[in-house]
Amino acid sequence: MALNRQLIEYLKGVATYNKAIVAICLLPVAFMFIYIWAFGVNVPYMDEWNEHYRVSLFLQGKHTLIGLFDQHNEHRPATQRVALILLGALTSYNTKVEMMFTQWAMVLALLVLYVEFKKIFDSKAYLILFIPVPYIIFSLRQNENILWAHQSCVYYSVIFGLLTCHFMSKINSAGAKYNALLQYCFGAVSAAAASFSLLSGLLAWPAGFFQILISDCKKGIKAVMLFLWSVMGTIVVLLYFHDYHKPPHHPGLDSFFKYPAEGIIYFIYLVGNTLFTGSFASFITGVFIVAATGLLLIFANRGFLRKYSFWIASLCYFSATLVLIAIGRASLTFHYVIPVRYITFGIAIPICLYVIYLGITSENISNKLYNLSITIFIALSAFMLSSIVNSFDEGYGAGKTTKMQRERVAYYLYTYMSQPDKSLELMHLVPAQVREWAADLQKRKFSVFKQPYLPPISELKALPIETYCSGILNSQLMNNITSQVVIEDKHNIMRVEGWAVDNMEKDIAGGVYIKIDDMLFPALYGLYRPDVGNHLKSHAYVNSGYEAEIPVSLIDKGIHNLSIVVLTKDRKHYYKPTYNVAINRV
To answer: Has residue 329 got a pLDDT over 50?
Structure first.
């Protein structure tokens, strides 16, 4: 017990720096919003296309309440769709705003965790030990979910699952019957919202049932609460599976019985993946977390279960979520590579264990159990700290890659009328469907059409000088072209690529137009060109590449003049067009 007393004395001394500790706890929240601002791109991506029409229908007054519960894969994400319609109508379907809104929901999750933490550790001395929690909750390892607005349904299942456990844990502490009833109703609403976020959200009902069961309510009241909770949960489940059909491209739940060993191992990888990427690290971490969870049975008694009601219920909720994923994906494992999007489903598991074992180490228990719990707590803290350190590097690298990919998608979407079908296929849809939905977005000035991709030349001032620029037309260096370039129908696509910089500002340009006579085609600008940075001896120029593919069918037959128009970085001026290449479409 000496170590326990020494720790408490040390924490009391540190508690004098509480303002600094609060600031440290809020840093990951700030990092998250800076991360979205830096790497988020406002463009529909993959599954978001299947949902965007709801905003359009809503604005036309054609959307029905029943339509919110339509099945998507295994889920009925009505909660997400309500948020999507409201945000879409208010922000012209800006997916970057949706990413921000989702993280505000996680700020609420952090507040819930803090409130529950204070219930166990009411002394300010323990605040410093809360520091790892926000860094795990806002881990940048979740980059795929953070930078993909469609994944808000995952975060909604997390926050409403936590809220369910939070409200149900307050039944014991509610001072009046009215207050207890209010918490009970809030818990039921949260469980329903979680259920209609993702399939795994249905697990909020058994989590709440467990909390009522271990509560110290009177037997008669408890029986009524359990009955009503069961009835409500059953109704939600029946509504959920009414007219349900298994997605044809997803494996059935029976795959686990065909591959039980693979499913169990996959579950261990899923658990470990909440903290680490990489098969070895995630497996070792998974084994440790599963073992630490199982060892909690040593401490299980009514007093322990009531004290840690929220944390145990949350631990079961998120663990069961990963079990469902493992059951459903048992036959799809490939060297146990875990998609990044699964991290968020179990992100609260190490946090719950961390708080529970911290609580155990602060209690007066037998030396043997104390030594075991302090060992687990220290090891878990080390795992979490390592994960936090690694998350910044992982998140930064993935964020840059994601931004480059989504900016390309946004460019193809904005210029869809002049893009070949093979470019539109990058959106994982049939090109004809992309053109139809893009026309609707353009008509409403939604998404990328809210403002011009590049400002119109007519609004800019011309500079009488050229800038540093290089161009390649259909694999021919434009500097070396001395005669007409013949463009035939069989070429199908005319490709122009190269690099351009703002020479006056000694920085990247504000954009590039490909000019053919009086027609202007925006180019995709900002491509990675480290060779340009080396050549011009400045790191500022490494993202100075551009490219454009122009369908030959958009160019009339005859002779035309092609040039490159480079915008200044502030997009208020443009340089004198570079190159004047004659092209002859025959």
So the answer is: yes
